[in-house]
Amino acid sequence: MNQPYTLFGCQNCGSTIVAAALQLTGLAWNYEEADYDVDSPARDRLFALNPLGQVPTLVLPNNEIMTESAAIILWLHEQAPQAKLVPSRGSSLYPYFLRWLMFINTAIYPTFTYGDFPAKWLPQNTHPEQLEEGISPHRQKLWLQLASASSHSGPWFLGENFSALDLYITVMCNWKPGRSWFKQHCPKLIEVAERVENMSELNALLCTDFSQNISKP
């Protein structure tokens, strides 16, 4: 029997995206909750594997370590293409998928890394709220750009084709600026999120406390 993957994650964090992807692949995997802001043995194990202490951190069956959700998604697609996390290389959607996968990870995601905890990154005697105030409208602008890119007709971001982009949207639309803002300004993204949340394979995982309710293969 193949050794399972082990995902180190934190509730309501970006690791939920990888958890959902793993669930769809049908690969065997385990989950370990490791809140990087709370001292615990799990947090110590996380830092031993990933010196940045960031989630998701994925331990492969051969004990190799993977970090960065985009890299993990691409890896999982190679292992389980039937999950359709990524369009096929010959598809006209493939470069489009890669563009917006990297846009989410390099443009939108850093606004949370630095904007949600500005005091962590700024010198003392500065005004961290100013950083957050500056990042918030920029983040909204980025989401509007992403939403405008989903011009394909169909139920998913890529139109008729489900992909891991839909998992990112589903998880991240619950973060700032909040679901109400998305409903008003990016209704297509909310429609995508609601479809993903209603997928039978992900129904339990995407509930509030998915680490307790997830059904692992």
UniProtKB/TrEMBL annotation:
Q: Which InterPro entries match?
A: Glutathione-S-Trfase_C_sf (IPR036282), Glutathione_S-Trfase_N (IPR004045), Thioredoxin-like_sf (IPR036249)
What SUPFAM superfamilies does UniProt report for this protein, alphabetically? GST C-terminal domain-like (SSF47616), Thioredoxin-like (SSF52833)
| CDD domains to which the protein is assigned, alphabetical | GST_N_Beta
Query: What region holds the GST N-terminal domain?
Result: 3-84
* Superkingdom assignment: Bacteria
Q: What is this protein called?
A: Glutathione S-transferase family protein
Source lineage = Bacteria, Pseudomonadati, Pseudomonadota, Gammaproteobacteria, Enterobacterales
